[in-house]
């Protein structure tokens, strides 16, 4: 196991699918298909790369996506 890897980057159950190189039309179709799938875990984050995010370490990008997701989708309870 990589000693630098942090298993606490994402909360339990949260997943990330990161898209790169898709046209807007392709991306829209893929997102629609994925969101319509009953097999996709509810807490899956769907994101696309940006010029800025391509410069980041993957671990840092995933951490940022997770924080944004929790900010915009607070758990109701």
What is the secondary structure topology, with strand pairs?
Layout lengths: L14 E5 L4 H12 L8 E5 L9 H15 L5
Parallel strand pairs: 1-2
Number of helices: 2
H-E string: EHEH
| Order of strands across the main sheet | 1-2
* Alpha-beta classification: alpha+beta
What is the β-strand count?
2
Major beta sheet, specifics?
A: 2 strands, parallel
Low-confidence stretches: 1-7
Specify the overall morphology: flat
Question: How many structurally independent domains?
Answer: 1
Using only C-alpha atoms, the radius of gyration works out to 14 Å
How would you characterize the overall build of this protein?
With 77 residues, the chain is an alpha+beta fold. It has one domain (15-72). It is 35% helix and 13% strand. It has 2 helices and 2 strands, in the order βαβα. The chain has helices at residues 24-35, 58-72, and strands at 15-19, 44-48. It has a two-stranded parallel sheet. α1 (24-35) links the parallel β1 and β2. The protein is flat.
Short description:
The chain has two helices and two strands, in the order E-H-E-H. It is α+β, with helices and mostly antiparallel strands and 77 residues long.
What descriptors fit this protein?
77 residues, 2 strands, 2 helices
């Amino acid at each position: 196991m990589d000693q630098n890897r942090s298993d606490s980057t994402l909360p339990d159950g949260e997943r990330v699918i990161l898209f790169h190189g898709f046209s807007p039309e392709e991306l829209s179709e893929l997102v629609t298909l994925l969101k319509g799938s009953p097999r996709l875990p509810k807490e899956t984050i769907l994101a696309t790369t940006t010029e800025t995010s391509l410069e980041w370490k993957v671990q840092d990008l995933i951490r940022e996506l997770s924080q944004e997701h929790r900010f915009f989708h607070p758990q109701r309870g």
